[in-house]
Amino acid sequence: MAVHLGRRGFVGGIAALSTGLWSASPLRAAAAMDFDEARHLLSRTSFGATPAEIHAFEQFDYAVAVDRLLGNVRRTAGTPAPEWLNQGPAEVRRQQQAAEAQRKDGVDGKKLEIVRPIQEQGRELKNWWIEEMLATDQPLVERMVLFWHNHFTSSMLKVRYAPALFRQNALFRREALGNYATLLKEVARDPAMLIYLDGMRSVARQPNENFARELLELFTLGEGHYTEADIKAAARAFTGWSVNRETGQFVERPGQHDDGEKTFLGKTGRFGGEEILAILLAHPRTAETIVQKMWLEFVSLKPDPAEVKRLAADFRRGGYEIKPLVRAMLLSPAFRDPANRGALIKSPIDLIVGSVHVLGLPVPEKTGLVRMLQGLGQVPFDPPNVKGWLGGESWITTYTLLLRQQFLRRMIEATTVASMEGGMMMAQRPNRRADRKQQLPADDSTMQMQMAERRPVEGRSLRNAGVEVRLGPTLSGVDSAALVRTLLPRQPIDSVDISGTPGVAVASAMLDTAYQLK
Amino acid sequence: MSRILLLVELKGGNDGLNTLVPYADAKYRELRPAIGVPRERVIQLDEKVGLHEKMQPLMDSWKAGDLAILQGVGYPYPNRSHFRSIEIWDTASASSQTLNEGWIAQSFQGVSLPKGAGVDCIVADTNALPSTGPELRTIVMQDAENFLRQAQNLKDPKGMGDGGNPALRHLLAVRQEINAAAAGLRDKLRAAAAPAEAYGQEFLLGRQLDVATRVITSKVPVVAIKVALGGFDTHANQAPTQERLLAYLASSLATLRHNLMAADRWNDVVVMTYSEFGRRAKQNASAGTDHGTAAPQFVMGGGVKGGLHGAYPSLHDLQDGDLKHTVDFRSVFATVAQGCWGLQRDYGLRQPQKLGFLA
């Protein structure tokens, strides 16, 4: 039995699924990979992996595969930037006020829908990033951008100025696998951050401690390694770093800066922001904070304190270069330990973006996906608070687990019928402007797309379409056992049926609780 | 003694000044020339304040003495962002503090609840933050039948090993929790009688109160239920929107009272409204109001001591154009924790204010 697997051609047949299948294979040459190890590496460094992607990696020596992931890093996004990128905050505010003024009550007492630029730009910004996550050929970069977004949080709900958040995202992208010291220094001057944590309002006669507090607690040292007096000193040092209200760019206002003497973490001087950051970067806790977080992101829910210290020391000594840290982590025994396969819980973005990618579902409009992410608790550009998403076990509650199953079921229903558009919109919020806009063709080409689009048809879902099931190009031609092994990081929790059609296998694997793991 | 707390979140920031109107204060007319509620449209509760006439349906409860109105509730260093301010309320945090656990869950730290029912809190809207935390088993359930059906798809994982994988252990525990809740709710909810009087269905709150009523009347032993009414963020042309919402809220709560009395459960429930903030004292240029601070809360129930509680914030002593709160919301929570669950809690306040609205 041989299965066709994309460009790589034919691979040997996979034996019938047994509980032994996921157990560690006997050690071969130290660096050699097998399907499960390639799958593991990709599941942590991308948003879902297709059989072809896994097989393409399986051929490499493990260390070579890691270097390929880290080589030729692109520092800009491929998806074109939204067109409002160069609007200043004053201009956006003026447009917003004009739109608000037009929002009168309609006949039925409901608000007439007027496009409000802040909300609309926020929607486009979120869709833009989801688009990039799905389109990118460098998912590891995308994961790191998301990691830095969750570390140096800023949210559209507070910032209310999408161009600044777009530029912050571009910064995270530039330094995704670059240098943490550079990133920290640039974030401290980043307009979105200055708005989000009130730095722009922080002046000598009334320093605002918000940024200083989070800088110490979340971005560098972590709780318990500083005092309230250190926060006050740091807040004074950053006074005068602000945002130009017309252009939205960083501006330094020397007249607002407190240039008096400060004592910060035992050092005394007439410190400005730069000096505070230098002191923090010299502190060993800073690297440990980052490594600890990165462990939770890449390796497991239980960081090994000795390993964290080791990696952090190298990270600091190496001048905070991020790429060597990620490389060391991916090569670490803990990462490669088969016990850590399936030991992380998929984030909502892992689940939704990953499933769309693996199923190869065409999703022309991303608003429906963002809305799913909202239900599951992870809207990009809108972290819940300054701590970001807690992640780990907190992703799964009784509510979100049922909602995850519901969304997966919806994807499974949509899989055999091409586009998810139309069928994927959340039913509880009908008639939103964004949804309506999709149904209004802008020109002939979109009109044709609309015409050609097939709607989900009752009785043709993955689960019950029988032999007629048509998987997308990412999964077609792969046998049931291999599909289940692609989709699940470990043995299924419930019984997964591999004797039936591939469609049934995919459906039951995606609805298995093990699918929530990566 | 144990009572169920029924929390009613008013999303968007309800304008307290046009809900409980300081009709006798000339400053009120001055601040709100266009959108102030005229004196003849105010139901006077005393010589200074009165309810918006659209809240007439609540007057039975007021006259019976089981409606308490808490005036001027807020917190120091108010935050005017919707998402941050509701988080401050829901986690009973200080303005400068970020907590992850909800205040109801915090209340039950160190308390062991009977596990028999399989569920401790039911959230019928989508914001479960107040009851989020390891102490409570919370189910979000807008529609009981739908929840039960979904739970059925996730079979009980009993006996399945997690192989020492903590992530999997958590997933299986949550599955178990869903199944336990479904088992505890299934028979009772399917057997529950329809509420004596149907709720209006113009807003989702009606459906949510229907779920809440069935949970309460079928005696599922939960500690709290949460519902919500949205749309209070009235920056422009406020009056028609807010009036429609207040009228709907008042009639829905009156129906709830009627239904729970008919089922002999009114003494076992405390209904409490809250909102992330009130609104700016001065109206804005679009006949609306912007985000503000303190506002009144309504508390109802058979065990509630009706009347006005706390002091109305002064319109002559504003801070940056906003009302200064007179009651800290954490003192309200402390009173509720004592009155509903017999728990002494301070939610980080050194000395919670004694408020007499709940014995």
Task: Describe this entry's structure for a reader.
The complex is a heterodimer of chains A (518) and B (359). With 518 residues, chain A is mostly helical. Chain A folds into 3 domains: 84-282, no CATH class; 284-340; 345-516, no CATH class. Chain A contains 24 helices and 6 strands. In chain A, strand 1 and strand 2 (10-11) form a beta hairpin. The longest helix of chain A is centred in the N-terminal third of the chain and has 19 residues, at 117-135. In chain A, 49% of the residues are buried. Chain B has 359 residues and is of the alpha/beta class. Chain B has 2 domains: 4-136 and 200-341, Alkaline Phosphatase, subunit A (3-Layer(aba) Sandwich); 141-191. Helix content of chain B is 32%, strand content 15%. Chain B contains 9 helices and 12 strands. Chain B has helices spanning 26-31, 59-64, 82-91, 103-107, 144-153, 166-191, 204-217, 238-262, 329-341; strands spanning 4-10, 20-21, 42-44, 50-52, 67-74, 121-123, 138-140, 224-229, 269-275, 295-300, 307-309, 327-328. In chain B, strands 1, 5, 6, 7, 8, 9, 10, 11 and 12 form a 9-stranded mixed β-sheet that branches. A 3-stranded antiparallel β-sheet of chain B has the order 2-4-3, with no helix packed on it. In chain B, a hairpin with a 5-residue loop joins strand 3 (42-44) and strand 4. Chain B is globular and about 70 Å long. The mean pLDDT of chain B is 95.
